[in-house]
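Protein details
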Amino acid sequence: MARGFYCLFDENEQLLIDIVQYFFQNNITNISLLKLKKELTISAYQANIACKQLSTISDNNEQFSFSFEKSRGLTLNNVTTQTIVLLTMLLAKNSLNIKIFLNDALGMGGLRKSFLKKAGISQSTYYRSKKKMFYDLQQEFPDQKMNNEIEYRALLQHITFFFFGNEQFPLKESSKQVHDMLNFLILNWQLKPTYAEKRQLSYFLVIQLLRIKNKQMILGSEDDLLTRPSNSYFARTKDYLSKSLGLTEEQAYHEALFFNAYIMTYNASPLTNQPLFKRKNEINKVTNQQLKSVETNLAVLDCRHKFPIFTERLTKLNTQTLSPFFFINTYLEQEAIARFMNSYPVICSLAKSFIRIRQKVGAPSLSLQSLRQLFYQYTVLIFSELPESVLDDQVHIVADFSVGNIYNRFIQKKLVKLTGSNIVIDPKITKKTDLFISDKFYPGIKTEQITWNCPPTAQDWHLLKSLLVSFHSKINNFN
């Protein structure tokens, strides 16, 4: 079944997502009812009902091009990631499960009694659905403990943004208040969020607003993530939240700290600084040990001084992983990581050492799935911010065929298309050359050689790819 927050959908809604994802992942436009039943391990009745529902959805929504006939099977045209996102939002809007979840967590839909009446369900149905959703969340995200109000709010932000983030939050009666709060806080803290960051920030504020107004869940001193700040920006935020949300000065103080911690973690306001975090010593310890790993394994002196931007962004990522706001709802499969490790062994070995250092901290603990995603974030950071000259894990290739330069340029262009293989195409042999490719074998050349046909065969390309994996394995001389 579909993974992640899709666990909050009922089985039928999850099946609709599964079917569309199957089309996307297998790059198909049509499937018979019999094959669909077999591939998704479902009954003929389930397959038939789901196909009819997808066809009905398409009839009522021009964004989708779905059709179903028993004789021809199910046809889904132009399925992209955007198709899945739009279908997710559409299903969430009409999902009884999601409505129950939002009512229980945020008070959306009114008081429990009026909600039950409007939804046409009993209280026992409400509680069974609620219990199953929270059980499924715990199974899907074992590192999300929801032990306190801050952790619960953080998870609620991620859930609501996942289902509704591509449009305004479905909260018409409070939209102006959220809009005004957002504008004040951006101006006050001199934030410059991107469009996506601004949308996430608005969802953060919606959760804060609804937990206070509808659930009367207000933060206290035990929830403070920062030491006491002393500046006019923070004071103005506290006063604004007090008036806007009807809080006492003490309540507004803790709520303002919560907001301040969030923007420090993600939005990097120029008016905030990492030392305010109560966990600053742990953040610095993890970062320093990781920088030491870079220096040791890449033979670099004074990493902080030599790579200040890398250091800053590594510190920011570690600040996130040690905060209640850190959450990953993406799924990078083990096969994808294996391919990346084959092509970028030095980067991946370094990222592994970063993970080991982060794991020693413990809280908040990270599940195997979250660690896998964090590993990928570390690799992307290393790949983006450390120079290739330091990493030195590229395979240098020279292609020089006897038929001449025109053919050489043709082969070079073909080699460049080996995306993900982490190779450099050089014009001539140098001391850095790892592999020489030609239509002839030259005993005088001391570097590794492979001999290809003109044009190369499928077997020639296969041999090259195997050799690249071998080269990268040799380059990977530390763990």
